[in-house]
Amino acid sequence: MSDILEFLKSTFVQRTPHMREIGTRVTAIERARGSMVLPARADWMGDPARGLMHPGAITVLADSCCGLAVGAALEQDTTYATLDLRMDYLRPATPDQEVHCDAHCYRLTRSVAFVRAEAYQGDAAQPVATAQAAFMLSTPAGARPEVPSGSDAPQASETFTTAAAAAVAALSPSGRPAAPARGASDRWQPPSPSEPARPAGVIPYLDYLGIRVAPDPLRPLFRMPFDPKLIGNPFLPALHGGVVAGFAETAAILHLAQTLQGAKLPKGIDFSLDYLRAGRPEETYAMCEVVRVGARVALVHVRLWQRSPDYPIAVARAHFLLTPRD
User: Less packed terminus of the chain by CB within 10 Å, N or C?
Assistant: First the structure.
């Protein structure tokens, strides 16, 4: 085993606060491949009515394992970050069984790594979810433009690509491009009233993330307070990408459930998220749009930000299967 594979096997979890906290373990590693396991835990319950695991917990494992496979594909220690992640949920998972994940970095270019993964419980031939991800590899940084002191403008690393700007515009409540950046005098402030998204103990995964909501009959604002256990990169520092994804999935489920008003139960079909910038160690916000509710399937878009909705950290979309209540 090469030095970098040995290094990853011994330190990949230990240097990541969130992976240490949730108890993930590296079970195998070889060139361009990695395997991890997420222990069973009552906190992963997301659907007590049906006894199902929250998809966010599986997403955290898949994102982590994909990152492990990228590290195992590199010839030297290089920083990298998730560009996008797609999850397809194939069958139900339960929180009382551990979840295994196998990932393969099948293509590595100078700038981007492409990864596939499968998550399963018990039988590897019967995966509960599959993942597809792309990671951006670090490249020599050019000079950054000067930013006036005290400006709210994003840093060079936070500027939009054309595709990202279009995605954000599509998710704005009005369907129009986001408003220009605010000055320091009228910086965006979240609504002061908020409450737990569900009463304590009803959905353990919501309690684990500490998710709150500023209620609104049409556009509730979901909030995830910062907690050190959510850190994925202690050097920036930054939130774990899987946590950001799990929060987005949770917001989409909660918003859709409010829209359905109990008529049907949503169950995840797929989920995809584009990362626009790193999540800072501070409170994160999410707002959703139910794009369509059909007889059997619903589509929800999500936008996540921290300091201002004008500069989202991620945008996401999810399909849900709608099942009648028994």
Answer: C
- 142 — phi, psi (to 5°)? -85, 175
Question: Which residue numbers in the chain have pLDDT < 50?
Answer: 140-182, 184-185
- Is residue 26 helix, strand or coil? strand
Instruction: Report CA torsion sign: 288, 289, 291, 296.
Output: positive
Identify the three-state secondary structure at position 255.
Answer: helix
The reported pTM is: 0.84
**What's the rounded Cα separation, in Å, for the pair 90 and 138?**
33
Longest dimension (CA), the chain: 60
> 3-state DSSP call for residue 82?
strand
Pairing of strands 52-53, 80-89: unpaired
**Distance between CA atoms of residues 204 and 66, nearest Å:** 26
Quick one: what percent of the chain has pLDDT higher than 90?
72
Distance CA 326, CA 316 (A): 30
Are 167 and 308 part of one and the same domain? Answer: yes
pLDDT at 326: 65
Q: How far apart are CA 247 and CA 249, in angstroms?
A: 5
Q: For residues 270 and 131, state if they share a domain.
A: no
Virtual torsion, Cα 37, 40, 42, 47, nearest 10 deg: 80
> Is 105 within the bounds of a domain?
yes
Tokens of 214: 């500023």
Q: Determine the pLDDT at residue 49.
A: 86
Cα–Cα distance measured from residue 201 to residue 221, given in angstroms and rounded to the nearest whole number = 21
Kindly report the CATH number assigned to the domain that includes residue 90: 3.10.129.10
Q: Among residues 323, 214, 206, 204, which one has the least CA distance to residue 260?
A: 323
DSSP 8-state symbol, 179: P
Q: How far is CA 50 from the centre of its chain?
A: 23
